[in-house]
Design brief:
275 residues, mainly alpha, Hypothetical protein af1432, 2 domains
Amino acid sequence: MPNFAIPPLPTIVSSVIAFDANDPKHGPADLEKLVLPDKAISADLLRVSNSAFYGRSGKVKILREALAVLGIKATKNLVIYLSTRTMTSTYKSATFKKYLVRYPIFAALTAQAIVQTTAHKAQADEAFLAALLHSIGMNVLSLDKQGHFSDMLDACEKNKWDLLKLEKQAYGVTHLELGLQAVEHWGLPAIYAKLIHVTPSSDIQALESVLEKSTFVAAVVASLLVEIPVSESSQKNAQDVFVALGGQGDLVSHYASQEALVRLNNHPFAILSGL
């Protein structure tokens, strides 16, 4: 397999991922110590906590107050999300904006929202992170191949070509394989290796955990929202998995509608991405 450079995971991300929000010994003050040295991320956390979304416009002045507003789990997700924004090609095409910026955050927010409405709501924040990182191999590939990969994505959309097959032919590796390399290189929990394989065309019988199922559903919804082609069979499968998770109603009309798109675009996490 060709050697692609896997960018190092920022120290702050490694520390935050390892931070167990469910450990009663870990509190906001402990998380603050990890985040405070990164001034850019600290500033963004203050910005988000002061957004209208949290109803604290202009009232949050220090990082500890921001962490109290956001909560430990949401802060973890936001720190990791802010760090992944830097792992994007310097080639600023509209296609990369769709696949590397809009798709991941829409998938993450959708997965979180869906799981919050089910009996699995305790895993909603984990669902956010799972969906956010499941396509990270595309970011890795884009850093090396830039414009060529962007053109390949465009051509696959236009001609309904198999992206993974073309990647293998052109680069000797697929973005899924690079995603697995990244998971191993960064020492992420084993569940992320499984999530890398989740795509809108996944075999739903192979989806085992709540995180795999919510990521699959969110992948289909996010693709529809950013106008990445999705087959009718994938949409039907997503509806079935959505119901199996405990979701109610029609998945597409609720989570992939124009109203849903407006809600997502107005979310402070999405605003930070520069959508």
